[in-house]
Amino acid sequence: MQGHKKSISLIVFFIFIISCKISTNTEKEPNNTFANANKISINNEITGYLESENDTDCFIVDVDQEQILKIALSGIKGVNHAVSIYRNENPGPVLIKVIDDNRKSSPETFANLYVEPGQYFFTISHGSRDIKKGNTETPYKLNITSRSYLNEEKEPDDTIFSATEISDKSIIIGYFSPAQNTMNNDPKTKMQELDFFKFNISITDNIPVLINVRLTGVTGVDSVLSLLTGTMEELHIADNAGSSESEMISDFGIKESGTYYIRVSSKNFLVNHEIPYELTLEYKQYDQNSELESNNSFDKSNLILNNIITGRISNSGDSDFFHFVPQFKNRFYKATCSGASGLDIVMTIYDNNHNKLFEINNSGAGEPEKIPYFMVKNPIYISVTALSLSSPESEYTLALEQYDSNEILEVEPNNSKNTANILNNRITGFITYRNDIDYYLLKFTEKQRVKLTVRGVKNGRIKISTTDPLGFIIKSKEINADEEVSFNEIFDKKGFLIVESAVPDFEFPYTITVEELQ
Amino acid sequence: MKIISFLMSVTTCFLITGCSTPGKEIIKKEKSEFNFYISIYDSDIDNPENDRRCYYMIYINKLDSGRTTTGLESQKKQFETVLPANRHLIKVEKWVLNENLGRYVKMNNIDQPKPDFIYINIEEDKVVRVNLKSSKSGTAFYSVIAE
Question: In the CATH scheme, what architecture does the domain A421-516 have?
Fold first, then answer.
């Protein structure tokens, strides 16, 4: 008898437990409105059905402290469902987020909803994309779990008005979650899930502030990092790295006090609800030997002081402009631009009127670009770009060095008859860049027979041609390495020497000597 | 046609032989640094479009000795040098401008002046002037004046 009593007691106990579990973890219809929303608690799984095409299941959560909620809604076979989140305010609930990946049968996840004490509604309904239909056989499971808030983005932070604050030397974590934001109607970023962060810059003594922003990579996500003004003007976009890799904005110069925004987004609606990104922000005062972004045009070019400047190619389209004002006019300078491993630098020289003089792309990735000697007659502009980037930290150093020589040196650009250097007795020239052609003009009072002696470039091969007065080639000779070749030519009062490279050597010069013969 | 060619060749030979025959008008060489001059031009260019820019390489005794000035085919192109007293073989080679290439190119052998050589005698204190008149057909007429 005692045994029977025990058995009955156990059965009753289990029935009680099971019934309690069912009653606390299953929706209770009708719950289609905020007024009859089912009250649920965090960290308890709720089961429910979207029974018809019009069914909406409404749940209310009381939040007693600041925390982060993760919302996970299981998929329903053949149904595209969505979760809408409302904050209960006076006079009524305000929609703050919609979680809808626009796909049938798939679960919906939102990794990090930031909540403060108050009430929040979670409504489960059909998504907007597919035909709405009920499913009374497959239930959904809604699981809202919580964790403490610490240095994290405050979702929803999808606009500048709800941006999460970030400050100097701070690290904030965030998630590429959820997949889409159906509340984003901005034509440029429509449906994209965006995370905004804001910070304030205060400029003192007109010294710009350089900011560095780093966004760590997240598995499976190709991220984009943007810097915006208070009026949503895009100052800079970092989109250099590929999927799972970090993005960086380095030493971007800000010259005006104000509020600025960082925007984090993913390409192609890629998500990762499990692994967060880390966003780091740092300020520092501008160093006059550093590049000050944005300097992508002549007007915004940075002045090179002390003959040296460091910079970064922050994306494949980035071009950095520098203005160099020589202390003395008509002096020769050497220029070297050396960059990080893998950075394939291109240097372009412009005159003071923005006319392109020449472009240097002699070396491969990771190797410095050099201009052996070039005449700086007046202030010049130098632009630095890259054909390939090494990493988000694509740093380079551009250095100029004045060169005083007793030799008569070629003056670039001299790529045409019109810009030919006048050659009297002797000149030293360089193959300055790929496909460089050097023109020299010889002038005499009458027809003149001359002996030309040419020493070639040490590690290359040059072709030297003589021309008639109109510049049409009469004779060509190739000179290997630094061998010396002499030949006679007749000039009808005037003619040109044209030097081209067959095998370029940008390091060593060639020399031409002209001797008049009787 | 064969008759015309024959007559031209005979004329050319006559001119060469006749002009270089001693006893012709010989003038004492005036004070000049050169003693050999050659001047070459095309005589029958009648269309500016066919009047190409050209020059002639000059080979003396089979050695490259320089070139004439450049000019249109219809213009006289000059070359001058100092030669020792002796009999010399003078050969000319025509180069024309290929504007597409931006350079002068040697004309095919078939288009070179015919004949493309002349023997001259240089004597002490004498100046020899050779005039070469070329025609479209390639026939060359040489005249030599020893002064």
Answer: Sandwich (2.60)
Partners of residue B103 in chain A, C-beta under 8 Å: 465, 472-474, 476
Complex-level ipTM: 0.75
CA atoms within a 13 Å half-sphere pointing along the CA-CB vector of A517: 15
Q: Write the burial class of residue A146 (CB in 10 Å: 0-12 exposed, 13-18 middle, 19+ buried).
A: middle
Does A6 score more than 80 pLDDT?
Answer: no
What domains appear along chain B, each with residue ranges and CATH number?
2-146 (2.60.40)
- Cβ of A490 within 8 Å of Cβ of B67? The answer is yes
The CATH number corresponding to A160-285 among 2.60.40.1610, 3.40.50.150, 2.60.120.380, 1.10.1520.10 equals 2.60.120.380
Residuewise pLDDT in 10s, chain B (147 residues):
444 444 444 344 344 443 333 333 333 334 458 999 999 999 989 899 999 999 999 999 999 999 999 999 999 999 999 999 999 999 999 999 999 999 999 999 999 999 999 999 999 989 999 999 998 888 999 999 988
Buried/exposed B89-115: b ≥16 CB within 10 Å, e otherwise: ebbbbbbebeeeeebbeebeeeebbbb
Q: Where are the domains of chain A?
A: 20-147, 160-285, 302-403, 421-516
**A450: closest chain B residue by CA:** B66
User: Å from A474 to nearest chain B CA?
Assistant: 5
Residue B111 vs residues B114, B127, B133, B134: alpha-carbon distances, Å: 8, 30, 14, 11
pTM: 0.63
Q: A302-403 adopts what CATH topology?
A: Jelly Rolls (2.60.120)
In whole angstroms, what is the distance from residue A340 CA to residue A317 CA? 17
Mean pLDDT over the full length of chain A: 89
How close B3 comes to chain A (CA, Å)? 38
pLDDT at A5: 58
Do residue B103 and residue A465 have CB atoms under 8 angstroms apart?
Answer: yes
Q: Looking at domain A20-147, which of 2.60.120.380, 3.30.420.40, 3.40.250.10, 1.10.3720.10 is its CATH number?
A: 2.60.120.380
The tokens of B142 are what? 């040489």
Among the partner residues A449, A473, A492, nearest to B103 by beta-carbon distance: A473
C-alpha dist (Å) from residue A366 to A342, A394, A398, A464, B4 = 4, 10, 14, 32, 73
- Give A411's contacts (C-beta < 8 A, 6+ positions apart): A374, A375, A421
| Chain B residue whose CA is closest to A488 | B66
